[in-house]
């Protein structure tokens, strides 16, 4: 998702089409937010019951549940951070990244 966004942003920035760049960034950030919310639900809802497959100790389960609550709650922010970083990297260092990837293939 971010790799295609990087390519689109680099292409449209080089053409000076800033309105399309904004649309691409908005779309990719929305997809990232949706992915983060989905991961929060997928991790948060069933994991409490899945943890009992590994242990029945109530103290361990309490620690695991508090950790999972933190991890699942932070997934929205983590997804947006990774998407934002990837898009920014594509805008600022796309030429360097392209040259370094090609040089690694040689």
Automatic annotation (TrEMBL):
Main location: membrane
Key word Nucleotidyltransferase present: no
Bilayer-crossing regions: 31-55
Any one GO CC term of the record: chloroplast
Keyword Transmembrane: yes
Keywords: Membrane, Transmembrane, Transmembrane helix
Subcellular location: Membrane
UniProt membrane topology term: Multi-pass membrane protein
Family per record: Belongs to the multi antimicrobial extrusion (MATE) (TC 2.A.66.1) family.
Protein's name in the database: Uncharacterized protein
């Amino acid at each position: 998702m971010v790799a295609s966004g990087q390519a689109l942003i680099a292409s449209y920035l080089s053409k000076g089409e800033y309105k399309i760049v904004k649309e691409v960034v908005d779309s990719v950030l929305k997809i990232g937010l949706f992915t983060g919310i989905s991961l929060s639900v997928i991790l948060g809802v069933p994991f409490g019951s899945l943890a009992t497959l590994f242990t029945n100790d109530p103290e361990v389960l309490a620690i695991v549940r508090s950790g999972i609550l933190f991890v699942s709650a932070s997934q929205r922010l983590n997804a947006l951070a990774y998407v934002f970083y990837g898009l920014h990297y594509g805008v600022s260092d796309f030429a360097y990244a392209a040259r370094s990837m090609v040089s690694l293939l040689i």
